[in-house]
Amino acid sequence: MRRNFSSSMEDFALEQEVEKNKALTEALHTLATEHHELKQSLCKSRRPSTLSTLTEDDFYDAVSESELSVSGFLSVASQSCEEDEGQDNPLLSILRHPSALRGPTGMSGEGNHGNQPAQYNGVEKHRTSLPAPMFSRNDVSIWSILKKCIGMELSKIAMPVIFNEPLSFLQRLTEYMEHTYLIHQANATTDSVERMKCVAAFAVSAVASQWERTGKPFNPLLGETYELIRDDLGFRWVSEQVSHHPPVSAFHAEGLNEDFVFHGSIYPKLKFWGKSIEAEPKGLITLELPKYNEAYTWTNPTCCVHNIIVGQLWIEQYGSVEVINHKTGERCSMMFKPCGLFGKELHIVEGYILDKSKKKLCAIYGKWTECLYTVDPATFEAHKKTDKKNLDEKKGNKQSSVDEEPEEMPPPDAETAQVIPGSELIWKITPRPDNSAKFYAFSTFAMHLNEQEKSMEGVIPPTDSRLRPDIRAMENGDIDLASAEKKRLEEKQRMARKNRTKSTDEWKTRWFQQGPNPHNKAQDWLYSKGYWDRNYTHLPEIY
């Protein structure tokens, strides 16, 4: 009798938990929908004026008190040592998630292997589009998947392949190199402050490719690699998925003219805030300029994807980024500003280059989606004061903040960063091709990343991302095959991990080893050489 009573109480408690979860899910969806509709009605009721870069669907993601209480309850850290191997972390890399002559050897001392040039990559003419356009996501709701995250870790939720883009995260990381010319410019100047300007611009440009990229790259399999050689841009790159718990991607790039080394390891921490997903960057990025015996380190800003329940998905990046020159003590402290209630600071980056005694040497400002400028600190601060005064006067003429008019959208091709007189342009984003919207909002550089030529066979290793059948199927427009292959690869990786636990064999990384960063002693993954010798007979069969 007592056992039956206890069992009934457990069933009743379980039923109550299910009902609570259902009620919370419905309440959150209703709250988000009403919030979105209210903002749209406010937007439509106001007369347009001049500066905002947001559309009606984009229109801000202000947090109300009720939202804070729900989002606080739903806050979730994504990384888990209990995660099943190969399981797809939702939107993991929405933010994880970017000319010189060829030398006979790289800076690592690795040279040609046999008759095959070490720089060979088999692509003579780069493509201008993908084999098939992207699939429509209109019939699939992200919310229908992510509502399962209530009370769970994000790493436990597998996302349908329809939300992916046909690139691995290792390939996505390579987009850091799109504006490599900034590194070459840094090497060309003898002034350390001018070099810092170039390096700071490179750090900002490295995240510019994320603009409008709402598709998530495929999570790399453990042991997956990716290489890219660009003679025209003067670099070669290799990356490896070195850990699965937590997921860590390590990369190493070097100038073909032995003029720089760029390396790092990336692993973001995700949080689900009810209406948005936030990726807090973890890991360290390092740029070395041997000509000046200088090393620069920094970390990326936080990336956030908004409107995952209702409305148009949009991305912002915010937080502080500090680029440090470990030789001179100079640093560039930049703030990626959050959007704010009416979007007036969307995409804005501001900061200063400081000497080792923290004296301001110059100001730096712009938008991470467009351009970056430098100007004298006094001029910058005077401009900011004038701006603030004008804004205060404008607010004083309003009856209340509710009556404040949203700024009008600028023409699509117009530069929206306000240029201060006397400024110097140090970086401007490369325009995306006209067909970008059809192909996952890819830049021209991104279009090239998964190119595969017949002549690559026997040259690139069997672990290269170009050889992944799920990514190749998606790029070719076969969504069913892509989904089936993705599941097969995940299951194969789980079985491989299970088999390793039954034996004394441990997984060993091939091209990177964990150790302290040589410049600030932080934990890092460093290139252990050997990749460009082109001896891949010992690699595992992961596909």
Quaternary organisation: single chain
Supply Rg. Answer: 25 Å
List the secondary-structure elements in sequence, H or E.
HHHEHHHEEEEEEEEEEEEEEEHEHHHEE
Class from helix and strand fractions? alpha+beta
Strand content: 15-25%
Number of strands: 19
How many helices?
10
Question: Which regions are unreliable across 5 or more consecutive residues at pLDDT < 50?
Answer: 43-105, 112-119, 399-414
Mean of residue pLDDT? Answer: 77
Spatial separation of the terminal alpha carbons: 56 Å
Name the overall outline.
globular
Summarize the biggest pleated sheet: 15 strands, antiparallel
Region (Disordered): 387-416, 493-515
Family: Belongs to the OSBP family.
Keywords: Lipid transport, Lipid-binding, Transport
GO molecular function: cholesterol binding
List keywords for this structure.
Oxysterol-binding protein; single chain; Oxysterol-bd_CS; Oxysterol-bd; OSBP_sf; lipid transport; 10 helices; 15-stranded antiparallel beta sheet; alpha+beta
Could you characterize what this model shows?
With 543 residues, the protein is an alpha+beta fold. It has ten helices and 19 strands. It has helices at residues 2-45, 65-74, 142-146, 169-173, 181-188, 192-205, 377-396, 444-447, 469-475, 479-501, and strands at 164-168, 216-218, 225-230, 235-244, 247-255, 261-266, 269-272, 276-280, 283-289, 294-298, 302-306, 314-325, 331-336, 348-354, 360-367, 371-375, 424-428, 512-516, 523-527. Helix 9 packs antiparallel against helix 10. It is globular and about 65 Å long. The model is unreliable at 43-105, 112-119 and 399-414 (pLDDT under 50). It holds the Pfam family Oxysterol_BP.
